Amino acid sequence: xxxxxxxxxxxxxxxxxxxxxxxxxxxxxxxxxxxxxxxxxxxxxxxxxxxxxxxxxxxxxxxxxxxxxxxxxxxxxxxxxxxxxxxxxxxxxxxxxxxxxxxxxxxxxxxxxxxxx
Amino acid sequence: xxxxxxxxxxxxxxxxxxxxxxxxxxxxxxxxxxxxxxxxxxxxxxxxxxxxxxxxxxxxxxxxxxxxxxxxxxxxxxxxxxxxxxxxxxxxxxxxxxxxxxxxxxxxxxx
Lengths: 117, 111
Description:
Chain A has 117 residues and is mainly beta. Chain A has strands at residues 4-7, 10-13, 19-25, 31-37, 43-51, 54-57, 64-66, 76-78, 87-94, 107-108, 112-116. Chain B is mainly β and 111 residues long. The mean pLDDT of chain B is 94.
């Protein structure tokens, strides 16, 4: 099992550029999510999805778009990168927490370190 | 809005000591709580998951407890080893599939 795969691992962007961070999982998990991790602030939820075709905003969604056309993939798009988006980005997947499903252990990718100059 | 706090932010102990990491959260309406380990430059690895109806979970030298009514969880590490050095994060999942993380406790176990 590959688990959760994120690409790229490192990226440098210029202000105003756009890019897509890729995330794929092979565990047939309904729930996928994106976080950013900044020093001293822990992980903050950007967007999440409870299944194909369904996405919703997290705590810090501004400047980011997502879509979920398949169960396996959950790409994160930066439409116009800003220096404030310099961060480490993590994608995670788990079974969806709902009635009757209690084991929602989350699996994380290795992260994408993004620098916007 | 759920707020998750972890104390202490950093901890340095000699090898062999037993230690306790603390996590508190402001809203007791949680679905579950997870403890994660993060090594430098790496992703997060789930250590223990405690369902909202449970009081504790154990895995090897690790024991996590949950007191939902008081908004607290502890991670107990027995007989610490240098390989336990990492950052430990706790996260709560609410009833709407959202996760909220603490900022972590950075643990250093000295040989």
